[in-house]
Amino acid sequence: MMKLIGLIILATAATYADEAYRTFTAQDGRTLSARIVSYDAASGKVLIERADKKRITVAPTAFSAKDQRYVDAWQTAQHFLSTSKFKLDVVRKEVNSTKKEHEVDIGEEEAGGRRGGDSGVQTVAIDKITHYKFNLLIENKTKIPVKNLTMEYRIYYDQEKAVKDEKANKNRREDDPRPERYLSMEESKVKEGKLKIRAIEAGESKEFPTQSVSILKRSASRTWGDKIDLKGSLEGVWIKLSMQGPGRDKLVREIALPPSIPKKYSWDPVEEPEAVDESEEKEEPKE
């Protein structure tokens, strides 16, 4: 079983130190325009910067219940975006593989009229179908749980298929006992998936699998209809892990295997432009 380790390639909004100022409300009702700079887990206090750029250290309990929840969410976001405290890896796994033989009954006419030759039941091709999946490994090395995550992924792979060779079949005789000719055509495919993750508890490590994809490799001992050589390849995976930030914005961590996948492929499918018939006459503007 082959295992390959992926590398973290991007974490958007790596810190909340540059967040916009917001209004904090104290327990006695007074308000303050400020932003969080850092949180000290040892002392349980938060460093905030007021609108006049002055920084002060306060206990979160000095704020209203709503603002205390905001401080907790801010701390969780910081942990989620930390590549050392909230670690991501991805591995590729071969689930299983199967083989299938293709047999055909080749008559004497199809074999070229030679008695005792290659006529009769013959194995003309062997398929090897391999199923692969990817596992996202998450390790929460912090002391607080990280909840309500969404895992989205794209698996990219290429697969050849057999299509009729119209050019070769164009002059084919109607009484030709041999099957029509085929040739291989490569298709680039993408398998998408989405998974909701309730929580990664403090100090916990978990694995989350993608769906599997099937790669076909066909080896033909003789060309017979659509039983021709075919190949396929698994290119890689691109995973986005997201959560809602304290300001209800979306925080995203990304990982790919191999790391070059985002440079080679687009996350969102590219829309084909509408075809324009250049032969159509353009309407003359009315005076």
Walk me through what this model shows.
- With 287 residues, the chain is mainly beta.
- It has a domain at 7-12 and 84-114 and 121-264.
- It has helices at residues 65-81, 166-169, 261-264; strands at residues 7-11, 22-25, 31-40, 45-50, 55-58, 86-106, 120-140, 146-164, 182-200, 205-209, 213-220, 232-244, 250-257.
- The strands form three sheets. It has a five-stranded antiparallel sheet with strand order 1-13-12-8-9. Strands 2-3-4-5 form a four-stranded antiparallel sheet.
- The longest helix has 17 residues, at 65-81.
- The protein is elongated.
- The termini are far apart.
Helix count? 3
Identify low-pLDDT runs.
1-15, 275-285
What is the subunit arrangement here? Answer: single chain
- Give the overall average pLDDT: 86
Q: Compute the gyration radius: what is it?
A: 30 Å
The helix-and-strand class reads mainly beta
How many DSSP-defined strands? 13
Strands in their spatial order, largest beta sheet: 1-13-12-8-9
- Overall morphology: elongated
